Every structure is written in structure tokens, then in C-alpha cells.
Amino acid sequence: GSSAIHGLRGKRGVEVFMMYPEGRTSPTQELQMISVLDANIHNIALAGTFDDCQNIVKALFNDHAFRDSVGLAAVNSINWARILAQTVYYVHAYHEATSPGAALEGTHVSYSVPTGNFGDILAGWYAKQMGLPVRKLIVATNENDILHRFFQAGDYSQLGVRETLSPSMDIQISSNFERFLFHAGGDDAPALKSLMDGLEDTKRLTPPPSLLAACREEMDSERVDDAEVLATIADVHTASAGEHTLDPHSAIAVAGARRYLQS
Length: 263
What we know:
- This protein has helices at about 1-10, 25-35, 50-60, 65-70, 80-95, 120-130, 145-155, 175-185, 190-200, 210-220, 225-240, 250-260; strands at about 15-20, 40-45, 110-115, 135-140, 155, 205, 220-225.
- Helix 5 (about 80-95) crosses helix 6 (about 120-130).
- By secondary structure, it is of the alpha/beta class.
């Protein structure tokens, strides 16, 4: 939110309406948004969760007459351009983690990604499809573990959103997961529509075995609770002699990576 606000503040021809769940961001993050007083910035604290905010945005996009009349665009990963930009992270990280010429030698790497709305890790999957040597993508979730339950047990059922130390991941409905399912299912639009209609009606998505197997071929998952987040932050801080202090989201990725390496 704050990055979009600071990037667009004061720009002519652009009005920014930034919705966020009231009381579910850090005080610092909220201040980064509401302290910007430019006339084209409009912050909206919504009584609800991130999913509630995102549902409103999706409803606005589905109102095509309204969408077209105001020139509606999204700044989060609903907008595929955001995901496209994020693929660069993975290429950069690959070169940071390997030696020159590693790709030509067939060196593969794995990425553990703190995941809520599934946009960042989907960017990693697209990078892999473009030729980046990726062995495995690890979906690292917090206690809002709908994605972990899907990969481990084929259970994509909506539960209540739990407040955690990693609020950017306090999500039950991952918008970009639908895009991944589309590709994993062979780009079969009618089949995906049937799955998503079922999710809308029953709050549960039941993947056929072939789809679940295809998803597991590309990604694995780990669930990290708040206690392990704190333990990981403390451990990395101690091990680095105070040089590195992880934020809670990064701690989830580190904890997920450690488990993957141990398995």
C-alpha cells in the first residue's frame, strides 16, 4: 500500500483509493499510508480482513461499465503486470546464489517464498517457465494455511482469517492461485471455471487427483506458526551476531527453507 501511494502521490490524472483492513496492519505501515496528504490519495480503513478488501476490488472490476468509465486499474497482484515485474527478483537471486555460468552447467536452485495472495511465488513459477533453472518452489504460509492444506492434503476450504505476526499473509482466498491452477490444469478454462464456481458456492475447492499431482510436481509447502516465527528471528539474529534481524514474513520463508532442506 505505502509503496503504491508514494509512487503515485501528486501525479496528475491518477486517483489512488487504498483499502486496508483496519487494525490488521502494523502501526508503522498504517502511518506510511495515512500520513500522505496529497489530494489524489484516499485511504480507506475497512472493518474486515484483506479478503474483504480484495472482494470489493474484484466486484468493481466485474462491473465492466464502472470499470471502463473510471479507467480502473489495480496496483496489487490482481494486475498481472505486477507479477511480471516480480519475475526479475528470481533471476537476480539466482545469479546472487550461483557462480557465473551456473545455468549453462545445469545448476538448479529452490526458493522458499512467504505466501499469502500467491503473486510472488507465481512470478517464480513464470520465471521457471521462461527457462530459469528452478528445482522447487516452497509455498511458506503462516497459520492461515489454506495453501499448505491444499498441497499436503488437497484441502482448499475456507476458514476464518486468523491474526498473526505476518499480517500481509493473513489471507484465505489467494487470487493468483486461480492462475496457477489454470496452468497446472492444462490451460483448461471451462474446467477451472467449474472449480471456481464450486469454491464460490461451497467455500471449498476439490481438485481432481491429476490436478493436485501436477501442482505438487511444481511446488511444495510448509506452515509456520507465530512461535516458530519468533524462534527463527531470534536464531538468525544470534547466529549472525546481530547483523541480521528478519521481519516476520522473511522468517516464515527461512523456516520453510530449513524444513525443506531437512526433508
